[in-house]
């Protein structure tokens, strides 16, 4: 997430040489590419942490420090 993010609510995901932008509300790629297996992991993680991600987006827009979101275990 970046402090100057724009709508729709999203975050940037990177894996090796791949990068994608993932819509938080709809849990789908809106730009870039991730391999299918990696996309599945990000999709699962986003679904588990959707509320936290949306809260962090509001925090970022207020120029406040972001909270850590637990990794997928």
Summarize the helices and strands and which ones pair or pack.
Blueprint: E1 10-15, E2 18-23, E3 28-33, H1 36-48, H2 50-61
Antiparallel strand pairs: 1-2, 2-3
Sum this structure up briefly.
The chain is of the alpha+beta class. It has helices at residues 36-48, 50-61, and strands at 10-15, 18-23, 28-33.
Describe the structure.
The protein is α+β, with helices and mostly antiparallel strands and 73 residues long. It has one domain (10-61). It is built from 2 helices and 3 strands. Strands 1-2-3 form a 3-stranded antiparallel β-sheet, with helices on one face. The longest helix has 13 residues, at 36-48.
Total domains: 1
Q: Within the largest sheet, what's the order of strands?
A: 1-2-3
Could you name the ranges where pLDDT drops below 50 across 5 or more consecutive residues?
A: none
Count of alpha/pi helices? 2
Helix/strand-derived category reads alpha+beta
DSSP strand content: 15-25%
Strand elements, count: 3
The SSE string, one letter per element, is: EEEHH
Oligomeric state: single chain
Helix content: 25-40%
Q: What's the mean pLDDT score?
A: 91
Largest beta sheet, briefly?
3 strands, antiparallel
> Rounded to an integer, what's the Rg over CA atoms?
12 Å
The global form is globular
- Taking the alpha carbons of the first and last residues, their distance comes to 21 Å
